[in-house]
Amino acid sequence: MMVVVVNVIVAVIVFVIVVVVVAVVVVVVVVVVVVVVVVVVVVVVVVLVVEEEEEEEEKDKTLRRRRRTRTTKRRRTRRKRQLKKLLKTSPNYVT
To answer: What percent of the chain is predicted at pLDDT more than 70?
Structure first.
């Protein structure tokens, strides 16, 4: 009778230890999966933000280029007009 009681107690202790170990392993696996998912999401968000900023920089560069060419064209035409006026008003102008 005593042997049966000891065997039951040992079996219960072993069962409790196994359950605790399995629970700890499950918790560790869940934590690792959550951390990996969070890291992947953060990396994806950072990459998307960086790509968006690069696209905006490219747009800004092209806009600056366009503005530059427009202003230089305006300056050129202005200069031409001014030169024509000066030529016409100058005493050496011959028609």
So the answer is: 89
pTM: 0.51
Strands (E), the chain: none
The answer to whether residue 43 scores a pLDDT higher than 90 is yes
Q: One-letter amino acid identity for 38?
A: V
- Name the nearest CA neighbour of 66 among 74, 76, 54, 78: 74
A 10 A CB-CB count for 85 gives 10
Burial class of residue 88, CB neighbours in 10 A (0-12, 13-18, 19+): exposed
**What is d(CA 5, CA 19) in angstroms, rounded to the nearest whole number?**
21
Which residue carries 């951390």 as its tokens?
A: 35
Cβ-proximal residues to 87 (8 Å cutoff; 6+ apart), any chain: 93
17 HSE (CA, 13 A, CB side): 6
Name the DSSP letter for residue 29: H
* Range 71-76 average pLDDT: 74
